[in-house]
Amino acid sequence: MKKTKLFLWCFTIILFIELIVVSNPTWYLYRIFTKPLIVGSLLVFFLIQKVDKKTKVFVSLALVSTLIGDIQLIYASDLEFLFLGGLIAFLISLMFYILEFSRSRDKSINFIFPSLILSLYAGTLFWYLHDYLDGLTIPVAIYMITAGMMILFAYLRHDDMFHNGYIYILTGALLLMLSASIVAITRFKSDIMYSDVLVMGIHGIAQLCLVMGVLMSDPFCRKQKSLS
After folding, report:
1. What sign has the CA pseudo-torsion 26, 30, 35, 37?
2. Structurally, how many domains does the chain consist of?
3. What does the pLDDT read at residue 222?
4. Chain centroid to CA 65: how far?
5. What DSSP assignment string belongs to the chain?
6. Partner residues linked to 157 by β-bridges
7. At what angle do helices 219-227 and 195-217 cross, to 10 degrees?
8. Residue pLDDT, tens place only, 155-169
């Protein structure tokens, strides 16, 4: 517990420093150091935890893919191909999260209503951006579908809906979609005030929620806590 609290303090400081750097254009080059530390610190923290083997593999690969995407997007405004590379890396990350969440799916939960809500949101956003996507129409559409599936599987998990692990994972999945939506809108359609700060703040919190939620839900971690 003490190690977790220490990590959370460190993570908060790392995220705060990144938000300061990203809000100052003259410091933008320093993001190659500050931005990767957000997911990088989460990856290190997760790797030292004792969790189910498949969970460790899937979530670690999701975080590695996210880290690769984060680094590529630092320079995506100058190099167009890096935006596509970042999009692919984030897409792979979502797929690993889907693999992890699908392992604990509760088939008794009705998926039709949340599927309709997610489809409505993704469809509306895609319609709003469609004319401005240029050659990225298909990759963006695939990403939106995959992000919606990740949220759906986070919702369909076999866990107490009032348990912290379930709440954290679902919150993280929703925040991840929100940060991606802001990126898409500012990239293709129109500016949003303080978008860089908003994206990184939401993105960092989303990744933290996903990792902490997975740890809270993992049977091995629960057993360890009950013995401590």
Report:
1. negative
2. 1
3. 57
4. 10
5. -HHHHHHHHHHHHHHHHHHHHHT-GGGGGGHHHHHHHHHHHHHHHHHTS---HHHHHHHHHHHHHHHHHHHHHHTTTT-HHHHHHHHHHHHHHHHHHHHHHHTTB-TTS--HHHHHHHHHHHHHHHHHHGGG-GGGHHHHHHHHHHHHHHHHHHHTBSS-TTSHHHHHHHHHHHHHHHHHHHHHHHHHT---TTHHHHHHHHHHHHHHHHHHHHHHH-HHHHHHHHH-
6. 105
7. 70
8. 999 876 667 889 999
Cα separation, 108 vs 26, in Å, equals 53
Tokens describing residue 22: 């990203």
Q: At what angle do helices 80-102 and 53-74 cross, to 10 degrees?
A: 160
Q: Give me 87's structure tokens.
A: 């999009």
CA distance 48 to 52: 12
Range of the domain at 221: 2-227
Return d(Cα 41, Cα 15) in angstroms, integer. Answer: 10
Token couple for 206: 């989303």
Surface-to-core class of residue 96, CB atoms within 10 Å of its CB (0-12 exposed, 13-18 middle, 19+ buried):
buried
For the cut 60, the answer to whether the pLDDT of residue 228 exceeds it is: no
Q: State the DSSP string of 147-193.
A: HHHHHHHHHTBSS-TTSHHHHHHHHHHHHHHHHHHHHHHHHHT---T
pTM, two decimal places: 0.92
* pLDDT, the chain, mean: 91
Residue 14 tokens read as 């790392």
Record the tokens describing residue 164, joined without a space.
């912290």
